[in-house]
Amino acid sequence: LWESCSSDMVEKSMVAIQASVLNYDDAIKKWLPAGGSKIQEMSKVQILHHVENNTFRVVGRKLQDHDVVINCAIIPGLKYNFTSDTFHQWRDHINQKLYGLNFLNLEDAVTFGTVMSRVLEVINSYRTQAQSNVNRPSMAYTEQGSVTVARQTVNGSTTSVVQDNMEMRMDNFDPRRPIQQENSVNNSAYCSMSGAGKTVSQGTLVSSPSKPTAPMPPSVQPLIHI
């Protein structure tokens, strides 16, 4: 079943999986469990799409106490590294953190990594289009709803061109934005979004159900500098 984002929803979950979240400590050169835990704990990790602002972020909550361990904006230029089959990492340049995700299984790792790659492809295409628009001479842009009207004056004659609005409003990202409480980790619906000739389109995923004694992920992989 394939479905698109609904305009009346502020944030849409594109993917939800279970993984242990880690932060890299530069001082001691080691990966440590996020949130101050002494051992790795499982978290529900999602990629959320803010429909109105057209922004994306990664949010993670511990399954045990629902503490937030990730709230990271996905911005153009972010480098997402597939360090191993079940361990991925990236740097959050806004909060100056290096995150690692230790997945329970290969399926969850592939699912999350695929969606992240598609999101990055789309938002990077936005930046390319925005830079092209900025460098275009004698152009005036006016936002009208979900489109941009570009007016170009040549020899006294004004021409209007309606374009898809490709501007990423990253200034609207607020890391303090509240994260809604959730009661289930299942049936997280994917989001469908188009832009700059790229499309993020997925169906409904059923994330791994929480288990009273979930096995811990494989041992953490060594850091690759990014």
UniProtKB/TrEMBL annotation:
Alphabetized Pfam families for the sequence: WH1
Name the UniProt record assigns to this protein: Protein enabled-like protein
Molecular function terms, GO-annotated: SH3 domain binding
Residue span, WH1 domain: 6-123
Region (Disordered) residue spans: 201-226
Compositionally biased spans, kind Polar residues: 201-211
